[in-house]
Amino acid sequence: MKREFWSISKSGMAVAASALALTIGCNPGPGNVHKNVITPFQKDVEDPKIHETAYIHPGAYVIGDCHIGELTMMSPTAVCRGDEGTPIKIGNQTNIQDGVILHALATEVDGERIEGRMFSADGERMAVDSPDWDKGYPIWVGERVSLAHDSMVHGPAWIGNDVFLGMDSIVFNAVVRDNVAIG
């Protein structure tokens, strides 16, 4: 006797196909890469910007306005949450190990900028009246940076080039210049 382990009706297949199409339309790309949603502190919907040579493990998550550079690796359970303070910049050849979290406090609420929460590309805090505010980052991670297992970068934070952040380390509301090891 032949047993059917599962069966699905034509209407059930149509429902499943519709749900899949809606999911794909909402979050283009892999299931672990998502747009952000509109909130009082995030007025625009943004897709992550991931360089084609970057590797994002299927068990890692990239959400919203995250810019990930070339030859950068995100390991399982790493998370880049560009859905509150944005954009988050991760430089080239950066190693983001298991369990790392990158997340920033809001930089604006209802269109009002919040002082001290944005950095320029060279690591200077930006004033809310800066004409370059829209070019700033609440989190900047430079090139050739290694963020070890379970470390956290919580913006506002700026990390320069050639930095090692050790296991379980936290960088919050800080500037870490080039060639530094923490942890």
Structure commentary:
This protein has 1 helix and 18 strands. 9% of the residues lie in helices and 31% in strands. It has a single domain (31-182), classed as 3 Solenoid (UDP N-Acetylglucosamine Acyltransferase, domain 1), CATH 2.160.10.10. A hairpin with a 2-residue loop joins β11 and β12. With 183 residues, it is mainly beta. It is globular.
Give the % helix. under 10%
Q: Any idea of the CATH topology?
A: UDP N-Acetylglucosamine Acyltransferase, domain 1
User: What percentage of amino acids are in beta strands?
Assistant: 25-35%
Report the C-alpha radius of gyration, rounded: 19 Å
CATH superfamily: Hexapeptide repeat proteins
CATH class, anyone? Answer: Mainly Beta
